[in-house]
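The records we work with from here on pair a chain with its fold. A complete example follows; check for yourself that the lines match position by position.
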Amino acid sequence: VPLGIHTHNDGECAVANSLAAIREGAVQVQGTINGIGERCGNANLCSILPDLELKMGMRCLPENALSRLYELSHFVTEVANLSPNEHAAYVGRYAFAHKGGVHVHAIRRVERSYNHIEPALVGNQMRVVVSELSGRANLLSKAEEYGVTLANNEIVPEVLREVKSMESQGFSFEGAEASVVMMLKRQQPGYTPPFELIDFSVIVEHRQGRGILAEGMVKVRVGGRVYHTAAEGNGPVAALDAALRKALVDTYPLVSRFQLMDYKVRILDSDNGTSATTRVLIDTRLESPDRAAERWSTVGASGNIIEASWQALKDAYDYGLVALASDGNGSGMGSANPVAAVEVQAAVS
């Protein structure tokens, strides 16, 4: 009689019990993508399938289907309107991420030294994370990944010192690679920022008949011109974003396609009450009609939540204009001249 196995994850053993049942002769596994299910969830097929194929040598999928597992996992997460588990085995963003300096030094020479499988087998990729634990190899890998040419050997230790100093102030770059890229980019000779902040302000008030409303004002310098714009939003960050977009869109039409997708706030030292340091993480997306959307994350930290938000917002716009604008596939660093970069992108689109 053919037997199957249907497990739930109440004891954190759904995957282990499913694999044990198969080893003992079960021919069918019931589970769900990402382990979504009642109570603590069902057996996670995103772990079971690669375990069977890559660890136990059992074919259970059509040829090359396993390489789409990462894509499938994130598609289901998006359809279900859930936040992805970034640390999930095989399909998490950090499943093959490395941040320790010794680890990164090793994988730059032999990738399999710290990867239990080739990430591409499940559609994922290896990532190098920059943090206070990083060494020279982390930044060199990050520079190579994003096509940043480091002019001299002094840049790497200088950026490392900056990373460690900023993390002591509350920044965290593990989930904000775009901020790291901009730190590297700003060290390049001849780098010109796409815009410079002069002033910004935010007013939040209750207006009769309209409820709570925020108004943001920014004054920025773009090239030799100064733009002073204001805009409203349903919150202070939305208002600042709208005002900055208004100030830049004539010079950089690309910003009209920037979308702020997520805004996360973390209070770091809650014992300090309202004077606690706040860390802000912003996810931004660039919509494109002829390729998959690009998405990047930036970070800010300050005792003032508006200041932290502005830091992350500015990095988001800097990265979108400098690092993506001139690249045909949106995957690498563009020209050091942001105006020319945006003109090229605008012409293509």
About this structure: Confidence is low (pLDDT under 50) at residues 328-349. The two ends are 60 Å apart (CA to CA).
